[in-house]
Specification:
about 160 residues, alpha/beta, Rossmann fold, globular
């Protein structure tokens, strides 16, 4: 959960939101042991989420902010982001807001997935190509089933 703010960029996690992130990260901590890179959008709540993840994972590296993971980013920016990832350098944890994440997942996997706020979705990707990824698992406060969209309205 996030707080209200005058601008979307200024919204922060609430105490409930922090707890939800801690719970999901703790559930999947062992699955994230291979993470070597963390990428963030510039949104305050996304950075808060990743600092919680970093603490729980015991991640010693830095969180890299991507200029491509911002409000209003569309497919060309998301593809540019994917092309800059180091696919040979270990696993990456990427966090952004809903539209960027949905575009990235759809481009990488060809699957339209419902991604609840504060959830994790693992994708196996060897190279940055459309349809090259396979969804491994999804974890959220509502359970670990992958939530596939049936209709566009499912996203809302």
């Amino acid at each position: 959960m996030t707080s209200n703010a005058d601008a979307d960029e200024d919204r922060e996690l609430t105490e409930i939101g922090v707890k939800e992130v801690e719970d999901v990260m703790t559930l999947r901590k062992s699955d994230l042991s291979g993470v070597k890179h963390i990428y963030s959008s510039p949104l305050k709540r996304v950075k808060q989420t990743l600092y919680i993840a970093k603490r729980i994972m015991g991640f010693a590296g830095s969180i890299e902010e991507s200029r491509y993971l911002k409000t209003g980013s569309r497919l060309p920016e998301i593809v540019s982001f994917a092309n800059e990832l180091d696919f040979d350098g270990g696993d990456a944890l990427v966090s952004s807001h809903q539209s960027c994440t949905s575009i990235l997942v759809l481009w990488l996997t060809g699957e339209d997935i419902l991604i609840p706020n504060g959830s994790l979705l693992a994708i196996d990707v060897e190279k940055p190509e459309q349809g090259a990824g396979t969804i491994l698992w999804q974890e959220s406060r509502d359970g670990s089933n992958v939530k596939r969209a049936v209709n566009f309205v499912d996203q809302f």
